[in-house]
């Protein structure tokens, strides 16, 4: 009896072993050597499901598990892989890899030349739509649609507040309106800085040399408007195709010179409708205690020096220039002195006339 039972078990095991080595069909379920197929007979993978020539397969391997979506007819291996939410045939598409390897999230047809396409329908007024997030433990890069506009920025790790967005710290240029930027920021077009904005961390400033107090472009408040504030510690230079035109350095302004030595140093001609110079005047000439140089001494001085007293010579003016305010004061002083000379001469003339008249009447 025991021998019969043992024999039966041996034949049963042999039958199962032999049966497992060949394809067997039971209600469209196929298996062979540990591989299972449902609705199709291609048992190249551990598990495959097929219908109407489209096959979904699972292939385990030492490094993980692979998922395949293939076809049994031309073009081979060009079928889509999709994940829906809801009832088959009427569910909502959530994820898709098309036959070209492009990935779509929330969209049926991935855009032209697009490897990853994320879409979320609905109004974006006051909220994100289609937001993509790449984050670490502290900050995240975010992009998507807000208020009908495309946004790119940075958030904190909780995605509820803006954070700093750093671009190209290790090198490379950023182009706006150009495909070949030649500078760290290369803008082909017009850009605007509003008066209430903050750039590069400075308060209403664009600054350089990591020093917002001594190297910056900013604005200052004037009544009813704003003013442009340019402050560069080493100086400011303006020029055109001819070269340097104006330079501000060491508190001096130079026009036509790069080394201004005065508050306004101009090498060239100045044209003006009116120039106002603050003067002290020369009214002291008319004070009673003012002493005029006798005309004989004045004559001797002019003969020897070839210029008026207290007035620089022509050679000195050519060499060192002259102070316009001081010169005008001196010229006014000489005119007033000349007036006094003229008055004194007139008195002498009148006295001579009187004396002549007296002589005539004798």
SSE layout and pairings?
Layout: H1 2-20, E1 24-26, E2 29-32, E3 35-38, E4 47-51, E5 54-61, E6 64-71, E7 81-85, E8 92-97, E9 103-105, E10 116-118, E11 128-135, E12 139-146, E13 149-156, E14 174-176, E15 185-187, E16 205-207, E17 215-222, E18 225-232, E19 236-240, E20 243-249, E21 252-255, E22 264-266, H2 295-305, H3 314-320, H4 324-360
Parallel strand pairs: 3-4, 9-10, 14-15, 21-22
Antiparallel strand pairs: 1-2, 2-3, 4-5, 5-6, 7-8, 8-9, 11-12, 12-13, 16-17, 17-18, 19-20, 20-21
Question: What features would you describe in this structure?
Answer:
The chain has 362 residues and is α+β, with helices and mostly antiparallel strands. Among the domains are: 1-79, no CATH class; 234-271, no CATH class; 279-360, no CATH class. The chain has 4 helices and 22 strands. A hairpin with a 2-residue loop joins strand 12 (139-146) and strand 13. The N and C termini lie far apart (196 Å). Mean pLDDT is 81; it is low at 1-22, 73-77 and 198-202.
Can you summarize this structure?
Helix content is 20%, strand content 32%. With 362 residues, it is α+β, with helices and mostly antiparallel strands. Mean pLDDT is 81; it is low at 1-22, 73-77 and 198-202.
Strand content: 25-35%
Structural class: alpha+beta
Q: List how many beta strands DSSP finds.
A: 22
Order of helices and strands: HEEEEEEEEEEEEEEEEEEEEEEHHH
Shape: rod-shaped
- Radius of gyration, in angstroms, nearest whole number: 49 Å
Overall mean pLDDT: 81
Proportion of helical residues: 10-25%
Helix count, per DSSP?
A: 4
Q: How far apart are the first and last residues' alpha carbons, in Å?
A: 196 Å
Show unreliable segments: 1-22, 73-77, 198-202
User: What composes the largest sheet?
Assistant: 6 strands, mixed
List the strand order in the largest sheet.
1-2-3-4-5-6
